[in-house]
Design brief:
- The complex is a heterodimer of chains A (112) and B (113).
- By secondary structure, chain A is an all-beta fold.
- Chain A has strands at 3-7, 10-14, 19-26, 30-38, 43-49, 56-58, 61-66, 71-76, 85-93, 99-102, 106-111.
- The relative contact order of chain A is 0.34.
- Chain B is mostly beta strands.
- Chain B has strands spanning 5-7, 10-13, 19-24, 31-38, 42-50, 53-57, 64-68, 74-78, 87-94, 103-104, 108-112.
- The chains are: A mainly beta (112), B mainly beta (113).
């Protein structure tokens, strides 16, 4: 059965800390791994990773995929209170468009 | 703003009723996806439409159905509603070429009383 597992489920840090969120996957016909940030409403797209070992970066956020070990990490450096959210990881499986299997998310709380 | 529009934002109804949720994809996107998000199950894929045709089905109940119209907007119909159907229902859309991310609307919160 296809599955995506995220850890930890929740995390509390202080502003300025660096955090690493983990995502492991077992997805048939795997195409890509996506990270989303969900605050109060819609999940907003962060990264799509298709190639192993190539880091994607956007400001203080970065992510990398390991297709051999079937996992990805999302790093956030110099965290801010605005980073507080649920971070969702999803595996994209098969098809011309692909559909997403989501993990349960990591709830990140950044304290001032 | 993702460009995906969902209406209504909130819906409160009773068991046994039927509701219709509406989604307008981002301009130019041909694919529309529906997801259900509940506290215990997380985000679950329901169904995908591509340019008016059903493309893939996930964990969608037989009481639920969807369609995509020629103008590419989509509707999700939920019937014979049960208390357990209370959830956030998201629509997402993506571009028609390969390996493009899905972009989500703000969702419709459905509460069954």
């Amino acid at each position: 059965e296809d599955k995506v597992v995220q850890s930890p489920l929740s995390l509390v840090v202080h502003e300025g800390d660096t955090v690493t969120l983990n995502c492991s996957y077992e997805v048939t016909n795997f195409r890509s791994l996506l990270w989303y940030k969900q605050e109060k409403k819609a999940p907003t797209f962060l990264f799509m990773l298709t190639s192993s070992g190539i880091e994607k970066k956007s400001g203080r956020l970065s992510s990398i995929l390991d297709k051999k070990e079937l996992f990805s990490i999302l790093n956030i450096t110099a965290t801010q209170t605005g980073d507080s959210a649920i971070y969702l990881c999803a595996g994209n499986y098969g098809g011309s468009q692909g559909n997403l299997i989501f993990g349960k998310g990591t709830k990140l709380s950044v304290k001032p | 703003d993702s460009g995906v529009t969902q209406t209504p934002k909130h819906l409160i109804t009773a068991t046994g009723q039927r509701v219709t949720l509406r989604c307008s994809p981002r301009s130019g996107d041909l694919s529309v996806y529906w997801y259900q998000q509940s506290l215990d199950q997380g985000l679950q894929f329901l169904i995908q439409y591509y340019n008016g045709e059903e493309r893939a089905k996930g964990n969608i109940l037989e009481r639920f159905s969807a369609q995509q119209f020629p103008d590419l907007h989509s509707e999700l119909n939920l019937s014979s509603l049960e208390l357990g159907d209370s959830a956030l229902y998201f629509c997402a859309s993506s571009a028609h070429y390969r390996d493009q991310p899905q972009h989500f609307g703000d969702g419709t919160r459905l509460s069954i009383l």
